[in-house]
Design a protein that fits this description.
The complex is a heterodimer. Chain A is an alpha+beta fold. Chain A has helices spanning 15-34, 76-80, 117-121, 147-152, 166-172; strands spanning 59-61, 86-92, 100-108, 127-129, 144-145. Chain A contains 5 helices and 5 strands. In chain B, helix 2 (77-90) crosses helix 3, helix 7 packs parallel to helix 8 (364-373) and helix 7 (319-332) packs parallel to helix 12 (478-485). The chains are: A alpha+beta, B alpha+beta.
Chain lengths: 174, 527
């Protein structure tokens, strides 16, 4: 890193710059005091910014009509994940038409780079990146999202249904 | 010896060789689902199409014999077109549920589709629905929809296991594989059908859904399950070992292996192993590092060197290890009290005329050879007598790896624990060992996949095998334990600096290709 030094006479006149800066601050202060609605900042925890629905934020696991997980535990998302943050444990389902389902699906959100490769890889539209972007937590354990969080956290209101429907597909004989 | 030309290469083959065998010999790739070198020729999948010069139509390679001067080609457009349509017919009723199917990643249909397919399907009709998740027997699950009716499994039960459980039922596109009424697929070789299934129709209950195959690495080794010594591949990753498959060896096992042998990965995994040495002196158990425990035990051994020290060996270790420990006993401790722990003497010589032998130790011959070399002929009765009279004070036991084939383990452990000091070298955990109430050192051992060595099978064939990976890094091999028990230190032998480097390379130069092979990385992107 190089440091530029300005040693000219003009640079010694710092007072105008300081006062100019204070003037800008004062201008905003008065503007905001008299016109609070047009304030440029948000009172963060109470007021939140909404990004567009295309925004790639926290993951969502989609569900079928009956509310069960859409995921078939094929591990393509885990395979494709460049950060290797997805861990899936598959198990045999009692229903022969489902066959395979995840009993454990965990995303280590601290490792995740939100690249979206998991949703690209998913052949059944089971994992999506949703518009939520806040990921605060008190301790490390909270950053590992399990099935409960990914599919059934309260703000998803019982899970997000996908447009792909197995039953209809089966009926059509595909 | 007819000569033929395959894809422009001249190949000389034996009389009566089929084209597909000639292609295997010349190294040309050819798809085949129904043909298997260990089974009869069925010719039902129609995918091994080749073009023969002078013949207007394409032929199947598996059932056409090579004749003198034959010119064979399987890379022409005509063949490609034929294979493409053949593949299309195979995929008519195939459900394409690769995300659920366990064969994904090593599936013949997937491979073939990537090579010749990649087109839009032209079938407008709905797929024929068949049975899903059919429980064929205690080991195998069938998915009829995925089945492409190559009949390999049916021919296997007819020709190899000779149990005839499977059959093809119904006609046309309603044909399904199934078992005859009330007859489950239950024989000692049933899981070979899973191996030879070119698609994921037959899946092993044991391996089903536990890992995707592309997460697994493999290594060739020799089966530790019985004295046949089948050549096998073990599949593992950092989570442990997951399955075992046979490797072709004409002298030993051909293409097959038994179901019992497929369980050998289970006693290798960490959850059933001693990870730390357990030491019981002054009445309480403490944990120690394996090497430190062996060093501590060496003090006791030295104190009782001579005739009050005895060694009990199971035939589950390699020849080199037997040599090391017997040598230590005979030459360092001057004791010829070395005993062979025979687990099931009555059934030792039984044989089912295919692969399974009654002797469930991989290296009985090797152990006997080492004992003979050192002129040792002590029997278990001598040990029993020595233990009851108190003449034997310290016993070193090289315990079995595969506890399942030692039904008398608990009794023998009880008998041995009559001795004042027991130094038990073993890989797998067992309750009987934790109940010992004398001075005991339980020292974790490495299993057969974690070390290099030689097994000598029932026929006297010496088979060398290499280390696959490390599961319990702290565990010792019997050679290392022998060194430590005799009070010596382990030395790490330095590899000569440029043993593996070609002469025109700098000693510090590492090629990227070589590094990629050595690193443990998932085969990402290879799909």
């Amino acid at each position: 890193m190089s440091v530029m030094q300005n040693n000219s006479e003009k640079a010694k006149w710092y007072l105008p710059g300081v006062l100019g800066g204070l003037a800008i601050t004062g201008k905003h202060l008065i503007k905001n005091l008299f016109n609070q609605k047009k304030m440029m900042t948000l009172n963060y925890p109470e007021e939140k910014y909404e990004y567009s629905p295309r925004f790639k934020g926290n993951h969502i696991l989609t569900v079928k009509k009956d509310g069960s997980l859409r995921c078939t535990a094929c591990m393509l998302c885990a395979t494709n994940c460049p950060a290797e943050c997805i861990k899936i444990v598959a198990a045999e389902h009692n229903d022969p038409s489902v066959e395979k389902f995840p009993i454990q699906y965990e995303i280590d959100i601290l490792r995740c780079v939100f690249c979206g490769y998991c949703e690209e890889a998913c052949p059944v539209d089971a994992v999506r990146l949703g518009p939520e972007w806040q990921t605060p937590a008190v301790n490390g354990g909270k950053f590992i999202y399990d099935i409960n969080h990914l599919a059934y956290r309260p703000n998803l209101k019982g899970g997000i249904q996908t447009h792909v429907d197995d039953e209809e597909r089966h009926k059509q004989g595909i | 010896m007819p000569k033929c030309t395959i894809n422009g290469k001249e190949v000389e083959v034996k009389e009566g060789t089929s084209i597909i065998e000639a292609m295997q010999q010349s190294g040309d790739r050819i798809a085949h689902y129904c043909w298997h070198p260990g089974l009869s020729v069925a010719g039902v999948c129609r995918l091994c199409m080749v073009e023969i010069e002078g013949n207007p139509r394409v032929q199947i390679a598996c059932n056409t014999m090579v004749t003198e001067g034959m010119k064979i080609n399987n890379t022409s457009d005509k063949v490609k077109d034929a294979v493409k349509w053949g593949l299309d017919f195979h995929l008519i009723n195939h459900p394409l549920d690769c995300p659920i199917c366990d064969q994904a990643g090593e599936c013949g249909l997937q491979d073939q589709y990537m090579e010749y397919g990649k087109y839009d399907p032209e079938m407008a009709e709905p797929k024929q629905k068949k049975h899903k998740v059919v429980d064929l027997g205690p080991t195998v699950v069938l998915d009829s929809e995925r089945c492409i009716l190559c009949s390999r499994c049916v021919r296997f039960t007819e020709e190899v296991s000779k149990t005839n459980e499977l059959g093809l039922f119904n006609r046309g596109d309603r044909t399904e594989i199934g078992t005859h009424d009330g007859m489950p697929l239950d024989n000692k070789y049933s899981l070979n059908t899973v191996d030879i299934c070119p698609v994921g129709a037959l899946t092993s209950k044991d391996f089903r859904f536990r890992q995707r195959v592309w997460y697994l690495k493999d290594a060739e080794t020799v089966c530790n399950g019985c004295s046949t010594g089948c050549n096998v591949k073990v599949y593992y990753n950092r989570e442990g070992f997951f399955r075992v498959k046979p490797v072709y060896n004409e002298q030993v096992n051909g293409y097959w292996m038994c179901d019992e042998g497929r369980d050998i990965y289970k006693f290798v995994n960490k959850d059933v192993r001693y990870v730390k040495a357990q030491v019981r002196t002054n009445g309480g158990w403490t944990e120690m590092h394996a090497g430190a425990a062996a060093k501590a035990a060496s003090e006791v051994l030295k104190a009782s060197a001579g005739d009050s020290a005895a060694l009990v060996l199971t035939a589950q270790y390699t020849v080199e290890e037997f040599e090391a420990i017997v040598n230590t006993f005979v030459n360092e401790f001057k004791s010829k009290k070395v005993y062979f722990w025979i687990n099931n003497k009555e059934t030792f010589d039984s044989f089912d005329n295919l692969l399974i032998r009654g002797d469930k130790n991989p290296n009985t011959k090797g152990l006997l050879k080492v004992l003979e070399k050192h002129g040792i002929s002590a029997t278990w009765a001598d040990l029993s007598a020595g233990l009851s009279s108190g003449a034997i004070k310290t016993v070193v036991v090289a315990g079995p790896e595969n506890l399942a084939v030692f039904p008398d383990f608990a009794e023998r452990a009880k008998e041995i624990s009559k001795a004042q000091n027991v130094i038990w070298l073993q890989a797998a955990k067992h309750d009987a060992l934790a109940q010992m109430n004398n001075n005991a050192w339980i020292i974790p051992m490495k299993t057969f996949v974690e070390k290099d060595g030689t097994f000598i099978n029932h026929a006297g064939l010496e088979q060398k095998f290499k280390k696959a990976t490390v599961v319990v890094s702290e565990a010792l091999t019997l050679t290392e334990a022998a060194l430590l028990l005799s009070g010596k230190n382990l030395t790490i032998q330095a590899t000569p600096a440029n043993e593996f480097l070609p002469l025109n390379q700098r000693p510090d130069q590492v090629e990227l290709e070589a590094r990629k092979k050595n690193e443990f990385v998932f085969k990402r992107g290879s799909l």
